[in-house]
Each structure stands twice: as C-alpha cells, then as structure tokens.
Fold this sequence. Notes:
Elements (H helix, E strand, L loop, with lengths): L2 E5 L7 H12 L6 E5 L1 H11 L4 H10 L1 H6 L4 H11 L7 H10 L12 E7 L4 E5 L4 H9 L8 E3 L2 E4 L9 H6 L4 E5 L14 H22 L6 E4 L22 H24 L13 H36 L8 H29 L9 H26 L2 E5 L5 H9 L2 E5 L3 H15 L3 E7 L6 H9 L3 E3 L7 H12 L5 E5 L8 H13 L3 H8 L9 H10 L4 E8 L7 H7 L5 E9 L10 H22 L32
Parallel strand pairs: 1-2, 1-7, 2-3, 7-8, 9-15, 10-13, 10-14, 11-12, 11-13
Antiparallel strand pairs: 3-4, 3-6, 5-6, 14-15
Helix pairs in contact: 1-3, 1-10, 2-3, 2-7, 11-12, 12-13, 12-16, 13-15, 17-20, 18-19
Amino acid sequence: MTTAFVLGGGGLLGAHEVGMLRALAEAGIRPDLVVGTSIGALNGAFVAADPSGAAARLSRMWQGDELRLAFSEKFWGRAVRLVRSGTHLHSLEPLGRILGDALPGSDFADLKLPFQCVAAGIETASARWFSSGPVVPAVMASCAVPGLLPPVEIDGTHYFDGGLVDSIPVGRAVTLGASTVYVLQVGRIESPLEVPTRPWEVGLVAFEIARRHRFHEEMSSLPSGVQVHVLPTGGDRQPAGSAQFRHRDQARVGQSIERAYAASASYLAGLTSNLYWPPSEGRGLVLPPRLVRRLVVAPMVICFALALIVLSPLLAVLALLFGLAGLLRAGRMRNLRLVSFAVVWVTAELVALVLLLGLWIVSGFGGRLQTEPYQSRHYRVVRWFLDALYRGAERTYGLRVEIDEPELTGEELVARATRPIIVLSRHAGPGDSILLVHQLLSVYGRRPRIVMKATLQFDPSLDVLGNRLPNVFVKPRQTGESIFTEQIERLARGLDREGALVIFPEGANWTPIRWRRGIRRLEHAGRRDLADRAREMPNLLPPRPGGTLAAIAACPDADVIFVAHVGLDTILSIGDVWRRFPVDQVIRARWWRVPFDRVPREADHEEQLQWLYGWWERIDSWITANRPGVPAVPAAVAAPSPSPLPSPDAGLADDAGH
C-alpha cells in the first residue's frame, strides 16, 4: 500500500496546507510519495526533504519574515521591473534562496521521499513532470505565476506555473501507484462558482472552470481500491480566483493555518473514530473524543490522584490494620502493597503530565513537537515514567525480572547497534507490556513504536505520549481494518537503527472464550490446518498476520525479535492487581532474534504464515515449560510444526544451546 500527499496550488492560500500537514503529522500519517503543483510544489519539497519536521518548518517560514521579505519589494521597484521586463512584477531569486537554504541538497535524489512537481511548458504547451535532476529550478518553474514571476528556463524550454495544467494532481499520484491519497488543497474547490457580473471576473471564472474540470474528472474515474481524502480548509468561502493574488496579505496566514489544522484534525479524527467505534457495536468502553479526554477525563484523573496522595497516610494505616488482622490468611499485606504502588503510579502520572505540559509550552504551544529534539525529550519522559513504575513494583511487591537472551557475540553486538527491530510479543496484559517497553527503552536504548489498544488513551499520560510519539492505537475488534495495516506499515518504514516497532499479533489478552473464538474463526475461513495448530497452543491466541507481515515487508533491514514471557499474564485489571499480583515473583522472559536476511520476506503469503505459526508454537511451548512453579528451561524449546517448512531454529541469531 502506498500513501501519497497531493498538494495543490493557490498562492498565499497555500498556508492552509501547512495546517493540514500539522494535522496529518499528529494523526501519525506519513507519506510514501509527495506530488505538488505551484505553491504545493514549494510546500511538498519541504515534506519530501523532512517528513517529520516539515509542518513545523513551514509554519515558521510562512509566519515569519522569510517568505514575506521575498515579495516585499516597494511599489516603485515592482513598477520598474514590470516596465523593464514587460511580463512580471517580482524576481525569483529570493524564492530560490529560500529553497536552497531549506533543502538538504540540490538534487531530487537528496530528498528523503520520492517527490514530483509539474510545470506548464510554454513552447510545448504541455505539462512536464520533474522527478530527477536539480530540484530548485523545478520547484521555481512550478511556482512561476504568470504576471507575478518570470518564466523559468530549463533545458531550453520556458515554464510557467504548474496550476495551469494540473492544479490538484490526484491522477498523477494514482498513476505512480498510490492506493491512499490525502489531498491538501487551498479551499477553491470548496467554493461553488458563480456567474460573473464584472468584467474582471469573466477571465477568473473561465480559468477556474478549466482548472477544476480536470480534478473532478480524475475524482470521478478513480480505479477501484484507491481511497482519496480531500482535507478541508475550515475557512470562509472565497470568490473564485481572487484571493490567490493577494500575495502580500500576511495577516491571514496564521488564521489560515489554524483553521485548516482544526478542520483537518477533526476530519482525520472522524475517519479513525468511525473505524474504532462502529455505530452497530454497543459493547465495550466508548472512547470519548480527544478534546473531551483533555478537558474532562484528564482533570478527573488528576483530582483523583491528588486525593489519593493526600489520603495515602490514612489509607496506609487502614491497609496495615486490615493486613495485620488477616495475617494468618493468605494475602501477605496485599492492601498495603496495593496502596503503596497506587501512590507511586499516580505520583508518576502527575509528574509526567506536568513535564508534558511544559514541553508543549516551550515547543511554541505544540508547534515544534514533531521535531527531533522534542521527540527525544518525550522518549525521556516515557523512560522516566516506566522506570518509576518498575522501581515501585520492585519495592512494593518484590518484583524481579530474569531475561534469557542471545549470547553477546560479535554478530549480536553489531545487530543491536546498527539495525532496526520489529518485536513480536505475546499479548498478556498491561503488566508484561510495560515491562517489555521498559526493557527496550532503559536496557537496550531503543525508541519503541507501539501498536496498542485504543482504550489505553483513558490514561492521560499514555494518551498524550502515545499520540505525540509515532504509535498506532487500535481496537481489538477492528485489528483487521486496512487503515491500521497502513498505519503499521508507516511506522515500520520510519524505523532507524534505534527504532523498535512493537506488535502484539494476538490482538487481545488470552481468555478461554477468545481462544475458542479464534479457532472457530480459522475454521470458518477454511483453514482447518491452522485451527488444528491453534488447538495445540493452549497459552496463546492464533496470531493475526495482517499487520505483522505488512510491517516486516515495509522495513526490509529490520531484524525480527520474538518475545515470550510469563509471570504477570493473569493481571488484567485493578481487581487482579489486588487479588493475584505476585509477591516476590520472578518474571521470566525469553527472546529470539531472526536476522533480517533470514526473515522470509521474499516468500509467498502462505509460507510467511506457516513461518509465523511455527514461531508461535515455539513461544507456546516455552510458556508451558516456564510458568511460575515450573523450573526454568533456558534451552530453546523445539516447536512442533506440521508444516513442511524448516523449523524456526534455522533463522536464529543465537547458538543452538540458547
């Protein structure tokens, strides 16, 4: 699946696209391909050069002096240029300097993402798409508005603004293989045309008809399987064609950015919420919109946390008395332990929220949150938060963790330092998941990207952190939706050598009902062979392969880590913490690395599916042998595999004795 951003033209109205880019970034939507026209070519070049930081950089450029000064020449200077040239008011040199300073190199090949822009050839009377060679002249040619800027000569041909030939190039993105297209437009198509009543309106309306015709034709003839999302500007309707020529009206820029951001963020949230919470499903928790969570849920949690901290001495005394009264019964002071750990949790929650509020303020009220320095600071907050919970569990419950990992050979050290990883773990409640993420951050120095349940957003700190960092929230019943697969692919494609994508292929915690339901699902799908294998795995749900295999394919340089663990798999709720949380328990974990060149990425889907089930059988066998009360089995457990494929051991990075 390929996601494209299509950025249309429209002069100063291109500020709307900056707000849309900010909304897309916050929604975790990253393009694989960028296509731009006119001012959209300028904005698109920034996106292709720096996908994660483009919104913030463009916001500074549009609202600062850089772009304003490029077209701030006094009236007499423009008049003299028009008389001398006979064709235009402004020079292209300032625009060229802006692009030259902002882009990482002079060539299309220097950009991080594939990028194309279009210009109208004067001598050829046709469109030319630029995708290679010098990038600055190509973007300037696409931005050369007739009358305002001179035509740009490239290879002996002169070019005017690309909006003359393709104002919103959806068709080009589809031709290049895009299956999901996000259209960033400036608002003209939102305003219906009206019959002209003044002489100067005639040409503008005629030009607008010609420009919109192609967009509507392409939208009406989209191939099956292609989804197009036209993001809204949220602005007032403008007379056709007039607003784009107010190229020096900077007063509206900030307003345009904020309106487009709010409207697009609402649109994208609606897309996601419709998939998370279909109207026909009345069961389960209903996650309120983000604004409600921020203004209602978060203050309620903060008030509860403060009350618990204030009352904690009294609660501790009561818990101690109840514990002493029931000392002869099983429990081992569970009430006191629970109160102590709850105080640790809510204190960490409050401190994290204060830190996150501070980061939001110093980032320019959210304007730079997606930049690398602020992403690093957010990961440090996550690490501190999880360290606090881990230390709290150690001191209150005597929790200890033992991890059986591959031997630190030279090959293993190189892999840990230089390659991204995709972590596939069993789904066994929030306790084991927190320990896994803590281990990745604090011990292995990784930056985890996590595919997790949407309901975790009821926790305010997890809500804020999860949405500011590259993660995906899903609802268990919707894990098969294509939008989630696309988002998981995006997370995987963005992995660097410090990155770790964490996926729980089961999609939910194990319960007997879910286990039987998973087997029936396979039988109804005609996969009795997989259903039979699932019956032989009493500790795990059948894995859902969609997101897992999509992630593996999207990041060909990533090693795959399989994780098994036992000890906290019965802790699924607050009640379980009080009744079942183990005291002085050793949490056991085991992980195996499959090097990137031994992962069957080139195999067909059926072979990959059999490979995944083989590993799942291995994990299930390890869990059976290592449950609390059973002596640990450090050696690798052979996996039963009725498939004709090689054993999973064939792709291990560690020695056979591990």
